[in-house]
Each structure stands twice: as structure tokens, then as C-alpha cells.
Amino acid sequence: MEVCDEYISKLQVLNSGGFLDSAEQVWNLDETAFQASELFDKVVGIKGMKQIPSQYNGNAKECVTVLPCGNAGGLQLKFLALYAGKLHLQSRLGDTHSMCYQAVNDSGYMDQLIFANYIKKVVFPAMTSMKNVIFADGHFSHINNLLLVRYCREFFEETGTRVEVFCFPAGQTCRLQPFDVSSFGPIKKKWADYLRDRRAKGGMVTKDNFLSHLVILGFKTEGCLERFAFNVGPTLQSGFARCGLFPFSPETIRGTVKLFNDPTVNASRIRQIEPGQDHEELFELLRRRYGITSDIHHEKVRDCVENVQKGTTSSKVLAGALAKSLMDDAPKKKRKQKNTMLNLTSGAMVTSDEIVKTAEMIQAENLGKKAALKATNAAEKAGRQAGEKVASKAAEKVATRAAKAAEKEAEKAAKAAERTAKAVGKAAVKAAKAVAKAAAKLSARDAKASRVSKRKAAEPASMISFSSKRFKQ
């Protein structure tokens, strides 16, 4: 229980410092996702169909991140509703009675800026004690948030009120965080029932009127039915008590914290046993009572007993070996490098100087990586631009050479065309002369032929006239 003892010792520092004296000093907040509208859980289709097409409007299948906040006295502050988008829509705050803090970012998930601004604008003004502690989980927007640390220090300088932010042990929030222990479960169940009731009676919940319905159920305003009311205050008080935070109870915490690191269990979750155990009594029992005398059977029984001691079975060992042999050939999944600079195994005070210094180192490292990446991208871009310039110059030279070659070819083609035109002109003149000469010959021939034909036509007439005169005589 080393982790549990470390966690309790850190809480005892808070208790001795006067941060856990009254219920108004102890705060908790946590994100959860709400479905803006319920999808239909039943459809009608032909029997045997594997897929049934359906349609949804723009309000369906969208979750809204909600961050409630309250203290151990049952005081519930206005909750934060985080939408994914670009603009704040004032229409979504209708009928919320100023009990909702709306925020918008690109992803719809919590970030450092929104988280720090919510605490500064909503949580700080609600604090009435001079010493306060805010318990939160290990989300990066909570622990690696230098802006929140700056706000806490500025708030102390302005008002004299100290605010510490404590992070729960890693992997233990489902057992140690009041909202997770006692509030979120009943809230989600009542919300699902409320959506079904609204769907049956008409007037469905959409992402535009979602906040007004959440305010009605969360703060029991006008129109809230008792069976749907969230009752966050009483459940949150119970959650603080069950987690041992207020009243501060180390005994309750010891019964709540999960054994995080067991030295007898290895990375494969197999318990280590003492080697060379004596099993003669077991073998004697097998021989005397069950008649099992073979050494081979004794070894099999011994292996089964040792597997039970290790917390496994022969089938699990065989399945693990088979899975390992199969996965050796599978491609390894690339995982994001884990940051081990912040040790949250037993919880941590986020506003302590040590954590702040570590966060500053992480921020400086991230800024250095971003600067290096930016410089690398700039160098690559400059290289590409230089290459493009060289390529453009080379292309310009090639284009100039091609233009000159094309110009020379055009000049050659023009000269060839000129020579061809001259040759064609000469040939045309010759052809014209030949045609004229042939035409002259033809006309002379025709004239001669006409004279001959006329002469021949005149000769028979004279002969006839002469013969007729001779006949008369």
C-alpha cells in the first residue's frame, strides 16, 4: 500500500495546513460528455437484413463536454458547457437563468485556456474561505496549466485567498473523485430517462436547447420533475465522504485506493512464487488417497498448483504464448511518447513549486521542439524555393534555347517557302506560255481547217454549173 500511504501523507499536509477544515474549502470538478439528443434504440426492418439505412438530423450524434463544479457543503456552481465550433451562439443560453458558462473551441475537448478561465471567472468568486483546495483528475489541461497557476497567485495577491489545485493519483479517479463516485452515474441514468420521456411526449432535446434542459434538471428550476432531478448537491456531499476527503478519513481512503503496484506481480500480471517449493506432502496425498503414483502425473499436478499460485491457468499460458507468436509478425502500433516528467502515481499538488518548475520545463521543451520543427520546415521550404528558382532558371534557359531554335527553323522555313514560291511562279509563267503557244497553234490549225472546208464546199457548185451548160449545148 505504498501508493496509498503517499497519497494520504500528501492529503495530511493539506489537512495540517488548514485546507480541509470546513466543507466550503474543499472543491471538486470534472468533465463528462452529454449526448445532445438520444438516438433511437429500436428500428423496424425486414427480417434477415444485416444493415438498415436510417437518417438523422443535424442535432443527433453530437456530444457536449460539461464541467460541473461543487464543494463538500453541497454548493453547486454554474457548469461549463464546451461546444465544438467557431462561434458563441447566444441563442443556446436561452432559459438558462445565467447558470451556464458556455465555451467553444475547435475540438470540443477541454484545453488549458478554457479550464483556467472558468476557474477564474466562476470558481474564484464563489470561494468564501481564505484557504481552498480544488481536486481534479490528471487531464493535461488540469496539471500542465501554467496559466491556472498564474491566476491562483494573482488571486492570492489581490484578495489574500490561497487556492491549491490537487491532482488525484493516476488511474484512481473512479474510486477517489467525488463526482465519479456518487454523481455522474445517477445523473447519466436520469438524463437518458429524461430524453426518452421527451421523445415520447414530443419536444425533443436538441443541441440548441440542450443547456436549458440541463439547467432545469441540474438546478431544479420551474418545470423539473422530481424523478428526473439530478440532485447534485446531496450526491456530491456523499461523494466527498465516501472518498475520505471531507471529513478527512485516512481509514476510508485505505479502503478505497486500489493496490497500484504489487511487487509480487510482474508486467504480465503473473504473481511470482518462491522457487523450490516442497510438494512431497501433496504427492503423498495423491498416492495414499487417490492412488496416483506416477511421477509424470505428480509433475502435472505440481504444474497446475503452481499456475494457480501464479494466478493463471495452463490454457491462459498456452493462449498467451500463441498470441505472442502471432503478434510478433504483426506491425507494431506507433504510440505517442509518454511524458514521464510529472509523476502522478500518488497524486500531486499542481500549484506546488516543484510541479510548476517541471511544467515550465515541459513547456520550454515543447516550445523548443516546436521551434526546431518550425526551423526545419522553414529550411525545407527555403530548399524547395531555391530548387524551384534553379529549376526555373534552367527552364528559362531551355525555353530561350528552344525559342532561338524555333526562330531559326522559322527563318529556314520562310526561305524555303520563298524559294518554293519563286519556283512556282516560274513554273506558272512557263505553263502560261505553253498554254498560249498551244492555244495559238490550235487557233491556226482551226483557221486552216476552216479555209480548207470552205474551199471544198465551193468546188462542187462550179462543177455542177459547168456540166449543166455543156448539156444544154
UniProtKB/TrEMBL annotation:
Pfam families: DDE_1. Residues 464-473 have a biased composition (Polar residues). Residues 441-473 are annotated as: Disordered. It comes from the Eukaryota. One of its GO terms (molecular function) is nucleic acid binding. Residues 62-194 form the DDE-1 domain. InterPro entries: DDE_SF_endonuclease_dom. This is DDE-1 domain-containing protein. It comes from Ramazzottius varieornatus (Water bear).
